[in-house]
Amino acid sequence: MPNPLFYAKILLFGEYGIIENSQGLTLPYSFYKGTLKFSDLTSDFEKKSNQALIKYAQYLEGLDLPKGFEIDIPRLNKDISKGLFFDSNIPQGYGVGSSGALVAAIFERYAVKKHNPENISKEELKNLKSVFGMLENFFHGKSSGIDPLICYMNLPILIENKENVDRVAIPEEVYGKGAIFLIDSEMTGETGPMVQIFFEKLKNDGFRKTLKEEFIRYNNACIDAFLRKDMNPFFRNLKKLSLWAYEHFRPMIPEKIFNIWKKGLETNAYYLKLCGSGGGGYILGFAKDYEKAEKMLEGFHKEVIYRF
Question: What is the pLDDT of residues 243-295, one digit of tens each?
């Protein structure tokens, strides 16, 4: 049986907002992927990955996972001693779910009870999300469990609120003028410190108020319009969302992205938003006319993830 591949994920909408109960929309991204493999650990990459798995297995041993979601730790340890490693091209610190793919791969192979992603109920999805949060806490300090869930399900997921998630159909891609794309900030970001900054900001009543009354409203409106493929309200709310982030998420926006973020808002040629927690990694771009945006963003490495 071939090794299952676990793809990266893109959080299109919901960064930070989902902590405060906003909706979120996330999709698998097959350009990057990872799988568990065995080797004689001759390369540095394989050696490092194997050593990281030793530490991770020790962490898992200390977890009290709910019934039906336990991990076969002895089998995992045995395989690690035989040269198990995670072969992945998913960049770390880029907001595309490198640890989520690893957690999903470990769960898929070593969960005592097998779960079939194709016929998981909404209630089971909720339980899986919670278990994946426990499994991913090792990497982020506090995880929502969303990233591993996306990687495991390999389907677009609508985050309805803190508790509930469901599968969702996104509009079929058509090769039109518009595009959603990634911009490489050429620096890695660390989730932990960024999330810490956000929690510090939340202590300010004014920030909490504008987050709930503006950011979450624009964010949810974008998701609703995108799923209905209603592009006029989509871009109208997207501009408000991008401007809000430019004003309130400054520490999360990589320095070399500031100017192009502002330029997008001034020209309306494209709009930018964070992809995950920010601080580095990828930034998300949205343009009605991608060719025009591409010319304006010359010098930056871009990857198109969806056309419309």
Answer: 999 999 999 999 999 999 999 999 999 999 999 889 999 999 999 999 999 99
pTM for the structure as a whole: 0.88
Last residue of a domain, one of 167, 198, 214: 167
Give the end of a domain, one of 131, 147, 167: 167
- Of 177, 157, 153, the closest CA to residue 168 belongs to 157
The number of distinct structural domains making up the chain is 2
> In terms of Cα–Cα distance, which of 282, 302, 26, 91 is closest to 179?
302
What is the number of residues in the chain? 308
Placement of tokens 């109960």 in the chain: 21
User: What distance in Å separates the CA atoms of residue 86 and residue 214, rounded to the nearest whole number?
Assistant: 41
Say how many C-beta atoms besides its own lie within 10 A of residue 163's C-beta. Answer: 10
Could you tell me if 151 and 37 lie in one domain? yes
Residue 158: name the closest of 270, 24, 250 by CA.
24
